[in-house]
Amino acid sequence: MFIALRAEVEDALEGALSSLDLPTDDLGIEEPPEDVPAVLASSVAFRLAGELGVAPPQAAVQLAGEIDVDELTYVTQIETQGPYLNFLPSDAYAAETVAAGVDPGYGALPDRETSVVVEHTSANPTGPVHVGRARNPIIGDAVSNLLEIAGYDVDRHYYVNDAGRQMAVFTWAYETFDEADLDDDPERDRIEYDLVRYYRKGNAFLEDADDDAVEAAEAEIQSIMQGLEAGDEEAYERVSEVVDQVLGGMKACLARLPAEFDAFVKETQFMRDGSTDDVVARLKELEGAVYEEDAWQLELEEQGIDKNLVFLRSDDTSLYPTRDLTHHEWKFDNYDRAVTVLGEDHKLQARQLRAALELLGNDTDQLRQVLYSYVNLPEGKMSTRRGTGIDLDDLLDEAIDRAREEVESRLDDRIRDDDLDEDDIERIAHQVGIGAVRYDIVSKQPTKAITFEWEQALNFEAQSAPYVQYVHARCCGILDEAGVGVDGDMETDVDASLLETEAEQHLIETIARFPAVIEEAADDLEPHQVATYTREFAEAFNGFYRECPVLADDVDQDVREARLALVAASRHTIANALGVLGVAAPESM
Prior knowledge:
single chain; alpha/beta; 20 helices
């Protein structure tokens, strides 16, 4: 309803300004401070007071007088406060908010009939997913969820680097060495942990072996790369045997978050169909194309980029940026918009890519790039093992273990009488533990570096995932106790005018804002805005819970029904907000 009220206020202000022959280009609409009992305010009187020839407070009164409140649906009164016009919500605003919130799909925006491909994660298939890259799948999945609920038709893609030197080295090592040649056992019983040992062995061999052995190995590695470039089927099958197995294990890891994909798009697709060769030919024809230092390069100084884009080696093998250009042109051909989630170390490459795409004649307005800083871990239990770094699996295991301990320590303090068995505790530990990781990471602005702190992420009392998840569980507990059930049908024609306390009104207004939060966050590609909203919502609901009993014996039946509907609307709001963030909404905690 907030979106509808905002539109109504905009129309009313534009009408008032037009009637006074004043410009309508800047309405000065904003959300007022918490102590102002209004949903929206406008500072337009301050800006236009000079044209009216009066002080701003008088201008505000004059503008308010031009608006007939009786003609408005969601605004019941306009109050002036200095230069501000404050718009107070009507009973219809509250009633329609509660009725809309009772719908399980509340918050979803209308279909925009626009297709979007979101590419994220795309870690090289050389071994387990590293914790430093955990921000990519978490942000990428949340961005995808956000665009989907905002009405876009979303495809989630993982771009597979299966054509570079790393994969040629991996393939050669996998074919060259036996299990007996490897120095250690797999760190986990999963395929990528097994095969990464061959990759490490191969790199160690290339560093330490005698010159003749290294020369022979390099010749075979080069042969694999040349074979891929030439579209040789045998070379492709050799590399795919390694890539597909490692990807299988990486998928299993990412599914724990969960982060799932609609397609795994391989680089070699664009080498085998000739489109990379086509891009290379077009790049060579550009004015900035030069052959320097045994490679074809594209000068980008006129685009404000000092470093050239190298797109073809002297042996006629392409590079990752070349194939990525081809990949993006393919995206432009198949989707209305493209979003890519990238680490901050790819900032230069992102600028080079956009500039080169424009020089090739592409409209890059349809391309958005979300850049993020990396996740750091504090010192402690999660120490590096065997010098190979900390894997995402390690972080998730640790999160679940810590969450299980926290859940078990709180069992005696639970208010609900639904006894939890071991399976329940394990389920909640997974929901809370993994939810804590996702929430803590996605709740921060992507460009800010973060250090993951267990004490903060798993704090049931602070503004963390468990704190917000507990609100959902509390809603479910109330609905269960009332006999409605979590998924039961609710009355939509309750008398919302009975929800008249300050806590009830604040909760209603918070629920009403949810679709607008989705709209703005999707436009900005900033899921952390939704995380901020969930904390505000949790505060509003907890205030309602403390002050407004729902099922107490002395609560009037009509008030009880209205508050139950408000609880159901709250449940759907917080469940769908957490769903955007990829955080589970437990029914019991």
